[in-house]
Design a protein that fits this description.
The chain has two domains: 14-92, no CATH class; 104-248, Reverse transcriptase/Diguanylate cyclase domain (Alpha-Beta Plaits), CATH 3.30.70.270. Helix content is 52%, strand content 15%. It contains eight helices and six strands; from the N terminus they run ααααβααββαβββα. The strands form two sheets. A four-stranded antiparallel sheet has the order 2-3-1-6, with helices on both faces. Strands 4-5 form a two-stranded antiparallel ribbon. Helix 2 (42-53) packs antiparallel against helix 3, helix 5 (135-142) runs antiparallel to helix 6 (144-161) and helix 6 (144-161) packs across helix 7 (185-200). It is elongated.
Amino acid sequence: MSFALPANDLPVNLADWRADQAPAFGTALPDTVLSGAARPGFASLVLRLRLQLRRDSDPARLALLDQILDVAAESEQKLADQQQRIEELERVSLTDELTGLANRRGFEHHMDQELVRARRQNGGGVLGFLDLDGLKGINDGHGHAAGDAALRHAARHLHQAAAPEDFAARLHGDEFALVLPGASVAAAEARLRGLCAAIRNEPLLWGQGRLPVGLSYGLVRYDGRASLASLLKASDRAMYLHKETRRARPVS
């Protein structure tokens, strides 16, 4: 490893140092590192050591620099690996393993942010609370593997129906949620009707037969003043009303 240090005089004050004044340093670092007092960390360490060593190019000191840089680079890599692992664990902790949608924790985390956004921007949207019809009958009649397949079937349709700005989640058991920011209740109603029709028209293939899968839903408008608990209670109540209506008029 070689460090060719220029002989021309350079300012030794780190706050005045510029990468383009020292070609031997290689690629210039971002201005956020170079301007003013350097940020603590690996880049700052390299700058300070090399500025010091250009006044004393003792091979022993260069060898020491190599060792320090190796240790620093290894530490940086370990920190990066740890951060990646933390992010992966956080992602897993917010995801429903069966369906791949967000889980209850991920939903609550998202809604906390969404309600803050709605309050700041004086905006809002619609929360849809969905329930898979007849899951107990599927489990009892065909086994829990069929029930899991029905949940994944519904989740796939829910994911396909969600726009890029929407947020879909499986809350618990046969309960799902769909967050539609900026939507009106009328627009959300049309979206959910289309979702129910798509699921009704595509029964779940299971064994040699087909299992009908249906959804009931309830909608509630939200803004920055609402609490998540009140929204869930209102949308759950609306969902049960929709379910009772569908039982009395199955094709609706």
